[in-house]
Amino acid sequence: MRYGVFADIHGNLEALETALEYARKRCVSRYMVLGDSIGYGANPNECLDWALRNATFHVLGNHEAAILREELGERFTGGAHQAIRWTAEWLKPELLSGIRDLPYLLTKGNIALAHGTLHHPGDFHYLIDESDAYRSFVATRSSFGFVGHTHAPGFFAEHSKLGGFLGEGILKLVREERYLLNPGSVGQPRDRDVRLSFGIFDEDELTFEIVRLPYDNKKAAGKILAAGLPAFLAQRLL
User: Fold this and answer.
1) Would you tell me how many other CB atoms lie within 10 Å of the CB of residue 10?
2) In angstroms, rounded to a whole number, what is the distance separating the alpha carbons of residues 113 and 180?
């Protein structure tokens, strides 16, 4: 089975459509969505609607949680707080009900998903170093854990103690190993590469591929400005 692994779409419809076009060409038939389909970008309804309709596996991100838990949104930085308030005003009611059904952590067979970490999924911590990875490996016995939130692709392997940033290309997985895999961000990459990032997980071939693609980021940035959202949210797409 081949999965498209999408995280942090963040209302960026141009990036999402580009990623989907490529994924279809690669015969991707199922999708994991690791949260934060909304926030920052100007198309939260379209992006979240796609995720709710098409994700085989789908978990709650901190931006979705901030719609449900106002106190969480209050802890966001200024621009992020302004964006989530704007998103809350524009989000369709039927999508709000869809958010309420999303879990913080999802485990299916040998796959586990969360937005931030597997060990404290509702706290939305960043999984960025070996100590974080260790706690998430302890929290589940799944062979493959998928997380987002950092907006940069990366991995950790439990037994070999390998890990770090993942560049564009294919990571060959070992059946006896356990992994934590991060596909980077579709709509808000923050690794000094403005191209969108997502993963392709091939369960049969045991590979995890990082895909980087250019998209119409100028159009996406223009929509953010036209919506009256903070200008820096547009600038960091460029």
Assistant:
1) 28
2) 9
Q: Domain range holding 11?
A: 2-235
* β-bridge mates for residue 211, sequence order: 198
Say which residues have a Cβ less than 8 Å from residue 156's Cβ, sequence separation at least 6: 127, 130, 133, 137, 162, 163, 179, 180
Element counts in the chain: helices (H) and strands (E): 9, 12
| DSSP 8-state symbol, 202 | E
Biggest distance spanned by C-alpha atoms of the chain? 50
Residues with Cβ within 8 Å of 218's Cβ and at least 6 positions away in sequence, in order, are 238
Residues in the chain: 238
2, containing H or E segment: strand 2-6
- Please tell me the total count of domains within the chain: 1
Rounded distance between C-alpha atoms, residue 131 and residue 196, angstroms: 28
CATH no. for residue 95?
A: 3.60.21.10
Q: How many whole angstroms separate alpha carbon 7 and alpha carbon 58?
A: 10
Distance of CA 237 to the CA centre of its chain: 16
Least Cα distance to 12 among 171, 166, 135, 189 occurs for 189
| Mean pLDDT for back-to-back runs of 10 residues, the chain (238 residues) | 97 98 96 98 98 98 93 81 94 94 96 98 96 96 97 97 97 97 97 97 97 98 97 96
